[in-house]
Amino acid sequence: MLEAFLRNYGPLQVKRFSYSDVKKMTNSFKEKLGQGGYGDVYKGELKDGRLVVVKILNRSKGDGEDFMNEVAAISRTSHVNIVSLLGFCFECSKRALIYEFMPNGSLEKFIFDANNPQKDHHLGWEALYVISLGIARGLEYLHRGCNTKILHFDIKPHNILLDENFVGEERSHIGKMTNKI
Fold first, then answer.
1. What would the pLDDT profile of 126-160 be if each residue is shown by its tens digit?
2. Pick from 26, 58, 60, 145: most CB atoms within 10 A?
3. Catalytic-role residue among 21, 40, 113, 154
4. Where in the numbering of this chain does the Protein kinase domain appear (predicted)?
5. CB count, 10 Å around CB of 175?
6. How far is the CA of 166 from the CAs of 11, 21, 98, in angstroms?
7. Active-site residue flag, 120
8. 23: annotated binding-site residue?
């Protein structure tokens, strides 16, 4: 399936990793960051030392055409407010997405987590305003700036990730891709 996809659509702009590579980069799935309806999320490290987030997709059914279409679309996005997809794994039913790591985690923990010691430390009204502008810019890019229009369908604080400067970036949990909006 993957080889046929690559023949038809050309090379992808992200790296393909084996499942063995995924296990190594996550140290056998040692540090779980969270879980969602689509799978579990782990912290990992590439061979070059860059930290990554590895999303292991569960319930991987079918021949993988939808998965590969999503990988192809996400890999062609490039915007300061969209988390970059660095790679993927597609071995039989084992599928994973590898994203750049956002050191400050999700916006959710700064808004709703009473146990977070950083909760009120950095996020005053001005910071929240800047984050909301980043979210709007990222969505505008997905809706108008991509060759393939992408609808997110799951915008919520949990899916807004913050970099080291607390710039908001949308996690590419894409629900639908379309040529028209």
1. 888 999 999 999 999 998 988 778 888 888 888 89
2. 26
3. 154
4. 27-181
5. 10
6. 33, 30, 21
7. no
8. no
